[in-house]
Model the fold of this input.
Amino acid sequence: MVAWKSSKSTPHCQIDRQHQSKDSVFFRDGVRQIDFVLSYVDDPNKEGEKKVERRREFENNLEKAGLELETEDKKESENGKTYFVKVHAPWEVLTTYAEVLNIKVPIKENDITCAVENPLDCMTRPFRLPDNVMHPETDYFTAPFSKERQELYLIHDEQTFFSPSVRNRIVYYILSRCPYGTEEGKKKFGLKRLLNNGTYTAAYPLHDCQYWKKSNDPKCDNERYTLYREWARFIQFYKEQPLDLIRKYYGERIGIYFAWLGFYTEMLFFAAVVGFVCFLYGAFTMNENMSSQEICDPDIGGDIIMCPLCDRKCDYWRLNSTCESSQYSHLFDNVATLFFAIFMGIWVTLFLEFWKRRQARLEYEWDLVDFEEEQQQLQLRPEYEAKCTQKRKNPVTQELELFKRKTVNDYGKLSLLYFGILFWEMEPYLPLTSQAVRFCISGTTVLFWISLIIASMIAVIVYRLAVYAAFASFMENAQTPTPIRRLLTPQLATSVTASFLNFVIIMILNFLYERIAIWITDMEIPRTHLEYENRLTMKMFLFQFVNYYSSCFYVAFFKGKFAGYPGFYTYMFNTWRNEE
Done:
C-alpha cells in the first residue's frame, strides 16, 4: 500500500520551464525516463469539452495505476498548438507488470565457452560489423520475472534493468486497458478509442536520439544513431545485420522480422545467380535456336500463311513477321528455363528448412522459446474485454487462467484490480449466436471480395479480346516503319496494356481490402492477440492469393484452350473471339 501511494507523489501538472536539451528523453528533473508520449490539441468545437473530460479522467486513472505524468505546454511545441503528456513508469509498476506479462530477465551471466573461431572467418571479416555493434549486451541465462524474488536477478541499476522496448510495452499494456469513463451506459477504456475519437492526436514512444547525429545528452546511448550509421545506410548493404542491437532497441518482433528479411535476401542471391546464368545461356544460344531460325527463314516461315488475327479489317499474314519477337522470347524460354524451374523447386524447400534452423537458433539465443504462448495466447485483448458485456466462469478452471498461479503483492493487486484484469469471479465471453452471426457476415464479405477479383479478371480478359482486334487492325493499316512493326506486334501491345491495367486493379483492390479485412476482423472480436493475428492473416492470404495469382491461372489453364479453329472460332459472350 505504501509503495502504491508513493508512486503518486509526483503531481500531474505543468512543470515550470527549465533549460533542457531537445534531445532529452527524460522528465525535466533529468532522472525519470520518458516511456511514452501522448499528444493533443485544443478543440474549440462542442466536442472539446467531452475530450477534456475524457483526458482528465484517463490521466487521473493512469496516475492511480502508478504511472507518472508531466505535461509540456503548447508554447513549447513547434506549431504552438500541441500539448505533450510525458508518461513514466516507476520501478514498482515495471516490476508488477513484468511479472504479469511473464517477461524474462537475466539471472546469471552465460558461462558457456564460445566456439573456437573458424580459420576461414578471416574471409568474411570485410562483411562484419564491430563487435560492440553486433553484441551490445552480455549474454545471460534468463528466467520469468517474479517480484517476490528480486534478489535472484542481476539488477545493477533499476533505471536500465528493463530495456526501452520492454518499458514501452509495459506502458502500452496499461494505456490500452485504462478506463476513461462511462458513456451511454457502457464502460469505456483504452488508448485506441481515445485516438479514434480525437481525444488524443497521437501516442508513441520516443527514440533515444536523432538518427543522423548523436544526442547532446550524456545519458543517451545513441543506439538509433549507431543503427543508422552501421546498418540503415545503402553503403552498408553488404554488411551483416546487427540483429542483437535491433532486438535490444526495437524488441523481439522487429528483430525477428529483420532476421527473416536478411535471410530471405541472402537466399535470393543464390537464386538470382542461377537465373542470371540461365539468361546468359539464352543470350548466347539465341542464334542457334532452331525454332527461331525456321520462323525467320524466308523459305520456311516466309511461305507459311497465317489466318487473320481478327474477324474484321485484318488480313492474312506471314509467320516470319514474328521473327524478332521469337528470337527475343528465347532469352527467357529455353532449355535452361526447365533447369531453373527445377532449381527453384529445390530452393523453396531449402529456404524453408534453413529458415526453421535459423529461427530455432534465434529463439535459443534470444530466449524466445514459447514466446507466443506466454505473451499472446494468455492475454485477452482489451477490445474483447470492452465489447463482451456478458460474463461467466471459465468452464475448465472456474477462474481467470492468466493469473491463477501468480502471487502479486498489494501494489500489484490494487493496480491490476483497478483495470479489472485480475481475480475476476467471472470472465467475459461472446455468446455462440453472436459468434455465428459475425462469422457469417465475415465469410460473406470475404467471398464477395473474392468474387469481385474474379469479375475484375474477366473484365481484363474482355479488354484483351476487344483491344487485340483493334491493335491488329490499326497496325495492319497504319504506316509504321517495318522494324517497329516487327517488334511491336498486336500480341505484345495487348499484353503490355492489359498487364498494366491488371496491375492497377490488383493494387486498388489490395488497398481497399486491407481496410475491409481489419474491419471485419475487429467485428469478429477475437479473444486474444494471437487469434486476432491468425484470423487477419487468413483473410489476407485468401484474398491476396486469388488477387495476385488469378491472372497466372488464366494464362496457365484457360488461355488458348478454347480458341476453336478457322471457320469455327469460339466467342466470349458471343461477341469477342477467344485468344489463341
About this structure: The chain is about 50% helix and 10% strand.
